[in-house]
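SAMPLE LOG
Freezer: B-3
Tube label: C17
Construct: single chain, 134 aa
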Amino acid sequence: MTSEGVTNRQSRHEPTETMARLQAAVQAKGLAVFARIDHAAGAAEVGLALRPTDLLIFGNARGGTPLMQAAQPVGLDLPLKMLVWQDASGQTWLSYNDPRWLVRRHGLTGETEAITARLATALDDLARTAGEGD
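STRUCTURE (predicted):
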């Protein structure tokens, strides 16, 4: 279960609770929630089965705009996203793009490295808050 540029973290909670904890953590940091997409519900609507798979899209212009100023196509990967999903064994996971990988993908340099380091720390903190604790 490894893909280049994707960070996967286990959660101690079931998918619904993990997503609720993630959304609360995102909002507590003052980030905007742009959308929540329930892929499993979409699959069910067309008669297909999919284990819990829920995507949260979030961010703020202060973090993402400087990256798009450096290379507008980085907007393909923004706003930030985090996927909460359950594997075949029932384990819940949080997955997200590593911002440092986005730097390499889009050929960003210089000042964007500090921004992406902050984004990477923020995403790691959000995943930890959502997946750990009581």
